[in-house]
Amino acid sequence: MAVISMTNEQYQQARLARDARFDGVFFVGVKTTGIFCRPICPANLAKEHNVSYFQHAHAALEAGYRPCLRCRPESAPNSWAWLGAETSFRRALALIEQGALNQSSCEALSDRLGISSRYLRQLFQEHLGFRPRNTLSTIN
């Protein structure tokens, strides 16, 4: 993801508007609570003098802020968690297309991916609307 250069006024405008276009582009640290959020967080807006802006979630963590439990900044678009889920899903789909479920179980596939079978089913439900086993009938 390209780094976007923004002024404090632009950060403030996007934060106050809870503009979804900036979700994952920057993060907001609130000095009074020690928590950092995504710009779309539904929590009450902090006063501007109590706010710090960060281009990356890890920068907020390094500054001593904790992730918000409401907006989960560690799972913002283009974050490692967000990209990780997409990568796991794509890898699972590729393995299924190569025949990974022809003679083994979903549990074996999830072990191979390093995730739980429950999480594997959840990924397929979110991306395709059905379970991994049902993918076989749509591929063949």
UniProtKB/TrEMBL annotation:
Q: Which residues form a coiled coil?
A: none
Q: Which SUPFAM superfamilies match?
A: Ada DNA repair protein, N-terminal domain (N-Ada 10) (SSF57884)
Q: Name one Pfam family in it.
A: Ada_Zn_binding
Cite the entry's keywords alphabetically.
Activator, DNA damage, DNA repair, DNA-binding, Metal-binding, Methyltransferase, Transcription, Transcription regulation, Transferase, Zinc
Q: Which cofactors are required for activity?
A: Zn(2+)
Q: Which residues form the HTH araC/xylS-type domain?
A: 90-140
User: Could you confirm whether the keyword DNA damage appears in this record?
Assistant: yes
Q: Alphabetically, which GO biological process terms does the record hold?
A: DNA alkylation repair; methylation
The record, for InterPro entries, names: Ada-like_dom_sf, Ada_DNA_repair_Zn-bd, HTH_AraC
The GO molecular function terms of this record are: DNA-binding transcription factor activity; methyltransferase activity; sequence-specific DNA binding; zinc ion binding
**What is the protein's name according to its record?**
ADA regulatory protein
Organism lineage reads as: Bacteria, Pseudomonadati, Pseudomonadota, Gammaproteobacteria, Vibrionales
